[in-house]
Amino acid sequence: xxxxxxxxxxxxxxxxxxxxxxxxxxxxxxxxxxxxxxxxxxxxxxxxxxxxxxxxxxxxxxxxxxxxxxxxxxxxxxxxxxxxxxxxxxxxxxxxxxxxxxxxxxxxxxxxxxxxxxxxxxxxxxxxx
Length: 129
Ligand SMILES: [Cu+2]
Hints:
Elements: H1 3-20, E1 33-43, E2 46-50, E3 53-57, E4 61-68, E5 76-81, E6 86-91, E7 95-101, E8 106-110, E9 121-126
Parallel strand pairs: 1-4, 3-9
Antiparallel strand pairs: 1-2, 4-7, 5-6, 8-9
The structure holds copper (II) ion (CU).
């Protein structure tokens, strides 16, 4: 094996090692990223966000992708999670992404803030021990 080829192989191996290294420093807790897709749907006359319950751990980074699949003339529905200061409008056919750190343990409601008749859901944040 020639020296330039060997050098290239070493550099590629090092780059892979660096890319695979965890992004946390020693002694710091690792952040878990929890991703969910929440879909606003209608069954019969009932409109709701599904899944109706999502469970994470305190300290998790939460990424929610919001989709509005409710048919009809009104093409905007809301997603509100007041405990984490989140209020969004989701248009039919668009995706909205929201991110937050689940810093507070507890059970928190999410719902459509535009239509009080919608069935809401709950974010469950399990406490750290
Ligand atoms: Cu709505």
